[in-house]
Design brief:
The complex is a heterodimer of chains A (430) and B (900). Chain A has helices at 2-19, 195-198, and strands at 39-45, 51-58, 63-70, 73-81, 87-91, 100-106, 112-119, 124-128, 136-140, 148-156, 162-170, 173-174, 183-185, 189-194, 205-213, 217-224, 227-232, 237-244, 252-257, 263-271, 274-284, 289-293, 303-321, 324-329, 335-341, 351-357, 363-370, 375-381, 386-390, 398-414, 419-423, 425-427. Chain A is mostly beta strands and 430 residues long. In chain B, strands 1, 2, 3, 4, 5, 6, 7, 10, 11 and 12 form a ten-stranded mixed sheet that branches. Chain B has a six-stranded mixed sheet with strand order 14-15-13-16-18-17, with no helix packed on it. In chain B, strands 19-22-25-24 form a four-stranded antiparallel sheet. Classes of the chains: A mainly beta (430), B alpha+beta (900).
């Protein structure tokens, strides 16, 4: 009896041990939701008759810092305040004699944007600074035929080095220059890849910037004649809006494929008569680019295009004419509020805002010139139409566009010898 | 021929080189008159006498024998029997109703030198003659007795039995053939006797041509043919083990052929396995009794190992022992199975610690170097606890223990650590053997169980994460328990000796694993409950006094004892409790002592596993429970292997215990006693080598895999992290103290970094003197964030981890004007200054001179050029009380011995 009881005791204890679940492995705390810092990386250039001013646009009064960096070190730094106007202008010349470089703007909040306004004796270029690095971006619109210079500037404001591959497709096919692969971008530095030197004589260049390690932000620099353009690369998407100013109707729409597969696209047109869907269709070759000549589309006055692709792509507006050179990317979203950093900051303060109302209802829009004494102007935009609004007299650090519907805004800068177009920065509606 | 005389057929088997005519002549001279016929087996040269017939095989000769023949006398042609040899054989077989008898063999050409008087064997079939080398026949063995086997040189066998057994196995060499035939005869129900009055001179020609390995192969075949499957199940693995040990031991004696011989014998048997299986099948029909009948005539242990062990000892002792007196004594020792168990365990321990011998103890997981003894003892005696961001809380009591060890080892803490680790392993094996002996075990399992203690279900897992202290706890636990269980012979000892030892062992145990301090008294109570005697509850109560060693630590770091979330989450696989049950339940069904011992071990082992799984207690409880699980399993293994038997319940328990033993030994084979490889201090040595002289700061180690962080880690957002000392981590820093103000701020800083909000994590970490951030493992949520920051410099190092230097880090101790102070033991010192020195450790008023809280850290006056810490509060006296208690224990032992 005792024997049996003891055997039962041991068995019961064993069963007890087996029935108790093994202790759970200790777990780390919940992963924190990443709230990236409000920063923007700006291309800058000082010297050779050119200078850069950073325009800040926001709706808030706060402080920030701008640090120019080159060759692995901070070349200079300054703090700024957006003040009551929510804007600021930071002349790089007062920070550092930098040459061609880059700077990191630490902004006072998330709904703040910055832009580089690059001015030379005969040239002007305006482009919003880049907020967030992504692994793959696309850049198109540049070319390297005779008399043109096309450079890709890879900017790394961070402490770690980055390695980048440029997958370049031209009308000759996939470019195989070894200098395009494994490009090392040291920390707090920017690296210039001169495509005019590496790949001269290319009419159409579609570039996929693929980051192997680290983080890099990319802009294109294009010079043709006396004027030049500055525009940033964009992440591939399938739905693009591209406002077109009245002066840009002789330009071209460049659609660049982000994948190694042929894709089709459809272009809807917004004009004075409203929206025309399926205005044009076409095909983009694998990793390549297709240009749509706007002159052939019969547009009249300020217009806008919506490009829908079957695969992720990027859309750019290339406007090269006697009036100057301008290239900018499209927008991937509509929003009720747009920041137009650097708008009105170029000498003379001339320019205009091109505003698309992609919604189904007329929208009442307030356009504000941000400066010490900001000035606002209210106007109405019918549904499906585009309005080009001239700059408010007196110059500005930046502009804002506020409505209530589905808007897309672009800023056009005009000087006597050049022009620039820069897509605005949307404030994503909650 | 007398009509009632049993008729004998003489079968002479040819031996190469032997004179057949002479052999036949000796047969002719036999005085026995019942010889029916004479047969020669094989192709003999020359003519045979007329009455002698020839046959091809022994099997044929036996088969054709008619029923008129009563006995067969199988005789080698190199044998020269005395004229009365056959008569004596027939007479004694008749008288003793035996079925098989063998003659006394004397070596021909000598002065009656004995060759065989029938032999015993061990369970592996190795013969044990009991004769000394060159022993002369003085009729000292002239007693008819049953033996395990008789030689086939001259054997008389009943005709019906021989026909049933189909004669000798012709594949076997003479000795093996005799063994095989004798075993089968016994299992068929016959008695096997030796008949010393039948004297045969043997020219030993048959042995001259016998290759050693063939005899061994034959013995193996005899074993495989005779034993039942259930016996083979444990005999075969043991045979392999014995062969390996024998081979290795012979290699020490510069004999390589033995190993080759073992190998050949196995190959030979594998080749002949079909034939062996056939023989087994045939023999099954005539088998009448079980293997127990064979065991009756077998010696304990292994003859082979006994001989080689004895020879090894002779070689060693011959250096000091001219007259071989000691060597003769050791022969008795080798016949103890416990000694062989101890030796085997010792061999495993040597193999298990080879890397520690050669490379020292690894610094990984929870295993770190000792500090210099003065520093360690200073910390233990209420000095500054430098773990993490530092604290005034008491350090783990092992700090004092390791300081003491290093002090004893002349201050060489590195060597002391290596020696201590080896000593732990030896102590564990010895401790289990001694405890098991005190509990009444005598078998081979009592020392072997030490391997289960060191690498059983709990300790293997603890050692696997690098818990050096758990290894020490396992080694010391049996000694602490043994100290409260008195041996009958100990009753003559003075009570002071008992108290002294109980205190000493308990203090050492508590120093390495404080929670195990309660085990001694608990074991004393449990031993009483399961029916044991001689456990002393008073001594158990005395051991509780030893808790003073750890009282400060347990009070200050209650989370170590109570906080389940701080556990390491170590999981013992489910098959371990099943194995324990499979071992223990059969033992519950046997009588007496073994049942009690088995129950004692099973309750401790399963109790340990139960506590380890319950969501109660912190890492201290987890560690103690896992060590207990191994301790209980070890006792169980000792019980199950104490007496090997084929009685089914004992056999089942022994097999399960053997599996536990093998599993445990397997955990040890990495050469580091199961500890993981690696050297964390070397891995993070850059923090010291790349730092300004004398001022290494701290390293923040981050990983999403907790096991990749040395020592205890804290949970962060999707990661684990901990602060390590840039000048190298020591054992006192394994456990992190309860979080204080600095730790809370550090956690906030890490949360902020993980949120990605801040572009400058280096600035956030700078106040904590974090010079380096190391991200271990493949992927963490911080990877993208650390790729997108501007003030931590990625530094490519060959560690495989992502390493970032923080150029903005504050000095661990420094004055405002940039003057850096450096460590001096547990203090800091540097250039005197009128400005205060900021010591980046959690604030404590124990720092001097003129401590002042600044945020979370401590400022002190730099006027004296030195900042020191002194603990306050009554618990700060506890370590001194512990030191006093240690001296008291040693004094009691010495005094008790003197009074004895």
């Amino acid at each position: 009896m005792t024997k049996a009881l003891l055997a039962v005791l041991v068995t019961a204890l064993t069963v007890g041990v087996l029935l108790i679940p093994s202790p759970e492995q200790p777990q780390a705390n919940e992963v924190a939701a990443v709230d990236p810092p409000a920063v923007a990386v700006c291309a800058v250039e000082e010297g050779s008759g050119r200078t850069t001013t950073i325009g800040i646009a926001s709706g808030i009064n706060g402080d920030g810092r701008f640090t120019a960096f080159a060759a692995g070190v901070s070349a200079g730094s300054t703090t700024f305040s957006t003040g009551a106007s929510g804007s600021a202008a930071i002349p790089i010349a007062e920070i550092a004699p930098l040459g061609t470089g880059a700077g990191l703007a630490e902004l006072p909040g998330q709904d703040v944007a910055a832009a580089s306004v690059l001015v030379g004796a005969q040239t002007v270029a305006v482009e919003a600074c880049l907020p967030t690095p992504v692994r793959q971006t696309l850049l198109a619109g540049g070319s390297t035929v005779s008399g043109e210079r096309f450079q890709v500037q890879l900017m790394n404001p961070y402490a770690g080095e980055a390695v980048v591959d440029l997958i370049v497709q031209s009308e000759s096919g996939l470019e195989a220059a070894p200098q395009l692969r494994g490009i090392l971008v040291p920390p707090r530095s920017s690296t210039i890849v001169d495509l005019a030197e590496l790949l001269p004589g290319r009419q159409s260049l579609s570039i996929s910037i693929e980051v192997a390690s680290g983080n890099v932000l990319t802009v294109g620099r294009f010079d043709a004649g006396a004027d030049g353009a500055l525009w940033h690369s964009v992440a591939p998407a399938s739905d693009w809006y591209m406002p077109v100013p009245a002066g840009g109707l002789n330009g071209e729409l460049v659609i660049s494929a982000g994948v190694a597969a042929e894709m089709t696209f459809q272009v809807d047109v917004y004009g004075a008569q409203g929206v025309v869907e399926g205005f044009q269709e076409g095909v983009v070759p694998s990793r390549g680019a297709t240009s749509v000549q706007l002159a052939e589309m019969g547009l009249e006055g300020a217009s806008a295009l919506r490009v829908i692709t079957t695969q992720p792509a990027a859309v750019f507006l290339r406007d090269v004419s006697d009036a100057g050179v301008a290239i900018t990317s499209g927008a991937t979203t509509t929003a009720s509020t747009w920041l137009l950093p650097g708008g009105g900051l170029a000498p003379g303060g001339r320019g205009s805002a091109v505003i698309l109302n992609a919604g189904l209802e007329e929208d009442s829009v307030v356009i504000t010139a941000l400066r010490k004494q900001s000035v606002a102007q209210e106007l109405s935009i019918p549904a499906g139409t585009v309005l080009q609004v001239p700059a408010i007299e007196g110059g500005a650090n930046s502009y804002t566009v506020k409505g209530s519907g589905d808007l897309v805004a672009l800023w056009v800068t005009n000087t006597d010898t050049g022009k620039a177009e820069s897509i605005g920065v949307p404030i994503i509606d909650e | 021929m007398p009509p009632d005389a049993p008729r004998v057929k003489v079968i002479v088997t040819l031996v190469g080189g032997a004179d057949l005519q002479a052999a036949l002549a000796t047969v002719d001279r036999q005085v026995y008159e019942g010889i029916h016929e004479v047969v020669v087996i094989g192709e003999a040269s020359g003519d045979l006498p007329g009455r002698v017939t020839r046959m091809a095989t022994l099997e044929e000769a036996i088969e054709v024998t008619g029923a008129e023949v009563d006995y067969l006398w199988i005789l080698h042609s190199d044998a020269r029997p005395r004229p009365d040899a056959l008569a004596a054989l027939v007479s004694e077989l008749d008288r003793n109703e035996a079925s098989l008898g063998g003659s006394k063999l004397l070596l021909a050409g000598t002065r009656d030198e004995l060759e065989s008087i029938g032999s015993a064997t061990d369970v592996f079939g190795d013969p044990y003659t009991g004769l000394d080398e060159g022993e002369i026949d003085l009729q000292q063995y002239d007693v008819v007795r049953e033996v395990a086997f008789v030689s086939s040189v001259s054997m008389l066998v009943r005709r019906d039995l021989a026909q049933g057994l189909r004669g000798l196995d012709e594949l076997l060499e003479p000795v093996a053939a005799g063994l095989d035939f004798s075993q089968r005869a016994r299992l068929a129900g016959g008695r096997v006797i030796t008949v010393p009055s039948s004297e045969v001179y043997h020219q030993a020609r048959c042995e001259e041509r016998v290759g050693g390995w063939k005899e061994e192969a034959g013995r193996l075949r005899a074993m495989l043919k005779a034993y039942r499957p259930i016996t083979l199940l444990w005999v075969v693995p043991f045979e392999i083990l014995v062969s390996v040990i024998d081979s290795l031991a012979n290699l020490l004696l510069l004999r390589w052929k033995v190993g080759a011989s073992h190998l050949m014998s196995w190959l030979w048997n594998i080749w002949h396995l079909p034939s062996t299986i056939g023989e087994r099948r045939r023999f099954r029909q005539v088998r009448a009794v079980g293997d127990e009948e064979l065991f009756r005539f077998q010696s304990r242990g292994s003859v082979r190992l006994r001989e080689v062990g004895s020879e090894l000892t002779d070689r060693v002792l011959s250096v000091f022992d001219d007259d071989q007196a000691l060597a003769r004594g050791t022969r008795r020792i080798w016949s103890s199975p416990g000694i062989w168990g101890a030796l085997l365990a010792a061999a495993v321990v040597v193999v298990a610690s080879w890397s520690i011998f050669l490379n020292g103890v690894p610094n990984s997981g929870f295993s770190f170097p000792f500090e210099p003894p003065t520093v360690a003892l200073d910390r233990f005696l209420a000095g500054w606890n430098d773990s993490g961001l530092g604290t005034a809380d008491a350090v783990h009591p092992s700090t004092g223990f390791t300081g003491l060890i290093s002090l004893v080892w002349f201050g060489a803490e590195g060597a002391a650590r290596t020696i201590a680790t080896i000593v732990f392993a030896v102590l564990g094996v010895l401790g289990m053997g001694r405890l098991a002996g005190r509990l009444g075990f005598r078998g081979p399992g009592r020392y072997l169980s030490g391997l289960v203690l060191l690498a059983g279900p709990g300790t293997a897992i603890l050692a696997g994460v690098g818990s050096w202290l758990a290894l020490g706890a396992a080694a010391l636990l049996p000694w602490a328990v043994r100290a409260v269980i008195l041996h009958p012979d100990d009753r003559g000892r003075h009570w002071m000796t008992h108290i002294g030892w109980a205190l000493l062992w308990a203090m050492l145990l508590i120093a390495v694993s404080p929670v195990l301090g309660v085990v001694a008294i608990a074991a004393a109570v449990l031993w009483r409950l399961v029916g044991g005697s001689r456990s002393s509850l008073r001594l158990g109560l005395v051991t509780l006094l030893a808790g003073v060693v750890a009282v400060g630590f347990l009070y200050d770091d209650q989370g170590w004892l109570l906080d389940f979330d701080r556990r390491l989450g170590l999981i013992v696989p489910d098959w371990w409790p099943v194995l324990i049950a499979v071992t223990a339940v059969p033992l519950m069904l046997v009588e007496g002592r073994t049942r009690r011992l088995g129950l004692f071990g099973a309750l401790i082992g399963l109790g340990g596993l139960l506590v380890a799984r319950l969501p109660l207690g912190g890492p201290g409880v987890e560690e103690a429970a896992l060590v207990l699980a191994s301790f209980g399993s070890a006792i169980l293994v000792a019980a199950a292997l104490d007496r090997l038997s084929i009685e089914p319940r004992r056999l089942l328990a022994a097999i399960a215990a053997f599996v536990m033993l093998l599993l445990s030994a397997g955990e040890l084979v990495n050469g580091r006693l199961g500890l993981p490889s690696g050297d964390a201090n070397e891995r993070y040595a850059f923090a010291s080598t790349l730092a300004d002289p004398g001022s290494p700061g701290r390293v923040l180690v981050i990983s999403s895999d907790r096991s990749l962080i040395p020592g205890e880690a804290r949970a962060g957002p999707g990661i684990w992290y901990r602060i390590l000392d840039g000048q190298g981590t020591s054992l006192d820093e394994v456990w992190l103290p309860e979080p204080q103000a600095g730790d809370v701020q550090l956690a906030d800083a890490i949360d902020r970094i993980a949120s990605g909000t801040d572009l400058r994590p280096g600035a956030l970490l700078a106040p904590f003197a974090v010079d380096w951030v190391v991200v271990e493992g493949v992927q963490t949520p911080l990877d993208s964030i650390l790729d997108s920051q501007v003030d931590l410099t990625p530094t490519p190092l060959l560690t495989g981890a992502k390493v970032f230097e923080n150029p903005h880090s504050e000095s661990l101790a420094g004055v405002e004007d940039g003057v850096v102070w450096h460590r001096d033991g547990t203090a800091f010192e540097g250039e005197a200054s009128s400005s205060p020195v900021a010591i980046r450790v959690n604030y404590s008023g124990g720092w001097a001179p003129q401590p002042e809280r600044v945020d979370w850290f401590t400022n002190v006056s730099a006027v004296e050029g030195r900042a020191i810490f002194s603990a306050t509060g009554y618990l700060s006296y506890a370590p001194y009380a512990a030191a006093g208690l240690l001296l008291l224990a040693l004094g009691l032992i010495a005094w008790g011995r003197a009074r004895r």
